[in-house]
Amino acid sequence: MRSTSAATALAVLFSSAALSAVAAGPASAATAVVGTPGGIVADGVHQRVFVGDTATGMIVAADYSGAVLESVSGVPGVTDLALSDDGSTLYAAARASHEIVALDAATLDVKARYPVATNTGPVYVEFAGGKVWFSYGDQWDGDLGSVDPSVDPATGADPVALAQLPTEGTGSGLWGQALLDTDPLRPGLLAVGETGDSTGTEAVLDVSSGTPQVTAWHDTSYALNDGVGDIDLVAGGDQVLVNGTDRHAYANGTFAKAGAYPAGQRADVGRSGLVAQVSGTKVAIYRPNATQPVRTYSTGTQSAAAVAWAPDSSRVFALVASGSGYTLKALTDPTLNVPTLTVNAPSTATRAKPLTVTGKISATVALPAGVQLSVTRTDLESPNGKALAAVTVKSDGTYSFTDTPPAGGKVKYTVKYAGDATHTTASASDTVDVSRASTSLSLNNNGKLYSYGADVKFTAHLGTTYKNRSVEIWANPFGSDKPNKLIKSGTVNSDGNIAAWVDMTRDTTVTAVFKGDARYKPKTVKVTAYAKVKISTAVSKHYKTASIGSTTYYWFHKSTDPLLTTTMTYYPGRQQRFDLQVYYEGKWYSADSQYFPLGTSGISAVSLGAPGESGIRARMRSVYVNGSSGDSVNSTTYGSWKYLYFSN
């Protein structure tokens, strides 16, 4: 023990009093996220999880669901966390400020700061034998230090002690900062794992007296490991778990191989003896010495940075990489094995005929004998599901049952296991396409052409069905600006008919829909009816109207330009085709056809040049041509001829 300096005593007292330097954050429902993990420990007394963030020097307190309760800053470079045996005090290794920070576990208020006289730590921290133990040092000067919380610096005694690693039985000591671990079921023991070397030293120290004594030590190169990245004391047994995989038993001052779990990277051993192992992108839960996991959780695309058991073994907490850092996840029911349940139904079946469904339930932890599974059938007759007789599983885990589906269509069989003391619930389903009869459905007026604005009655006729006698009628006018619209929905009359009226302003697809029922398939029929545009042409600048033969003509002087104004149903981009013919020797001859755009009011005015000579007879008309007049939403429509005569 080194002597207490006045500076050390004042520093501890000052930081303990200056609580405003570390402010606790407000409670929040947000999930706990840290930038760089700096330790994780679960508090069974207050039902809290503490997570350190090395990057920000912050400690976050979360509830057992992972939601943030509060946080505290001012713990520079925090790298590890530990709780006192009674759960009242949280200790943090502040590597950047070279101190151990003691905080109230219930409030995160700072209780004391203990400066550590080193520039290489502290790094890892644990609580055992009434003291806080921490590792420090680098490159062959790794060592162990302690803080005695019972020592009051004001008395002149220093609560911090360095160079606590025993010199006897420890060979050349530690290369760098050592990983530390304790076990509440083995009070007074401290596991030590050397880091930074290609083959790490392993040790168990007895610190119950306050002075570390070697219980077991191993530093033979590559005999037990190829480097230590994680070490855990095994609950209730004389073993350590190294790198989440290898079990090393200690006895008579040394270590020996004692088996292994399937390959992992890091782990935490719970008080129940269960192991939460990080293996790639999974967290696997193992019973002691088992080779098959009780349960496996996926962590997405990346490995969990750390895991920690809740003291009551109700859940495992994992720090999982996310886009914003590392998110605290609560992995619930870790002691319950997840059964695998399958359901295999035929892909097709005949309605009202028996079918057989088979399946299997299995688990890596043995299921009880005589397991029963519930069965539910969901179909058109029972959309909320109908319970069928429970089925008992055979000794090999297989099962089968027979059912006669009363309804056709998609029939789903859902099989469930309710779970037991060592297994979660399980559910699986499969779907059968059960046959249905066909019915007839017709719709009139297909291909008919109507004047613009005609009100047309469309009648649908439905044939034989089971229970559903409803039909929908939809009208979909041509053109992207008009949506398909439901214009009638209802029950057909006693003759099987239902009708709806359509205002024929455009070519229109009319659809009748029968949605089917438990015994008859759905049916859809479509017809297309066509609508003309409305066309009228006004003639002006004539000086009279008079008949030539039986035809009425508009009379113009030979030097007058006739003005012909056409009004046509408007549509964006629409044009009228202007047809002109001349009468010669008893026949009409086409002189010209030209397209002219419509204004937004649907009007197009065309001035016909004066011929300059008399005796000429001409006629014109306006035409909408489907596809050539700029759109295809109506059917081709011809306006009436207007007859012109030019005189002197």
From TrEMBL:
- Which InterPro entries does its entry note? Quinoprotein_ADH-like_sf, WD40/YVTN_repeat-like_dom_sf
Q: Where is the signal peptide?
A: 1-23
Keyword Lipoprotein annotated: no
Tell me which UniProt keywords the record has, alphabetically. Signal
The source's superkingdom equals Bacteria
Q: What is this protein called?
A: Ig-like domain repeat protein
